[in-house]
Amino acid sequence: MTVFVLPPPPTPSVAIRDSRQRFPVRRIFCVGRNYAAHIREMGNDERDPPFFFTKPADALVETGSTIPYPLATQNLHHEIELVVAIGKGGVRIDRDAALDHIWGYGVGVDLTRRDLQDMAKKAARPWDWAKAFDDSAPCGALIPAETSGHPQSGRIRLAINGEVRQEGDLAEMIWPVADIIAICSEAVELQPGDLIFTGTPSGVGPVEAGDRLSGEVEGVGAVELEIGQAR
């Protein structure tokens, strides 16, 4: 029996729609620049291959939560995303078999401290401080792939205080989900419990304390979030 010097932290997890069970989360991978319009609005080349960054699993936030405005930023941005939940791991996964590794789908928000990201870019430094901070990965309840199927198209949108800020279609992804899984597994061994945030459409922008965010992906689900006052 293992004896720890401190109580071990709880296992991060995501709710499952219409179930009392939860999906345990191991790691969170995020795809950067996967919608052409968003790439252009950020001043980048849409022909670049996909790249990945990560968030800690304990950055997950339950839908419907209120989180404090993050520390160390004056420019917090929203990025609505389709989330893929991995149910079967592997390395060098073939694109044609990639969808067989998916347990289900959800809707998440990649919160970004944009001012810190801009400074990191200029200094050629990692993005961790801009992306991997407390409460930076709100996620709605997952839906099993056996229920939803594997969406190739469908509206993805985010509104702030009822005003739509981001709106696009999953069909606009430069790298579809199967490609994302295949490419990611060329560099790391995917495992059951991993989540992949698959990129965001154009329209990203700032949120302030008191703002209410609501996002959805057609046929998949929704996520809601309120930004509270700073700590």
UniProtKB/TrEMBL annotation:
PANTHER family: ACYLPYRUVASE, FLUTATHIONE S-TRANSFERASE. InterPro entries: Fumarylacetoacetase-like_C, Fumarylacetoacetase_C_sf. It holds the Pfam family FAA_hydrolase. SUPFAM superfamilies: FAH. This is Fumarylpyruvate hydrolase. Its EC number is 3.7.1.20. The keyword GTP-binding does not apply. Residues 28-224 form the Fumarylacetoacetase-like C-terminal domain.
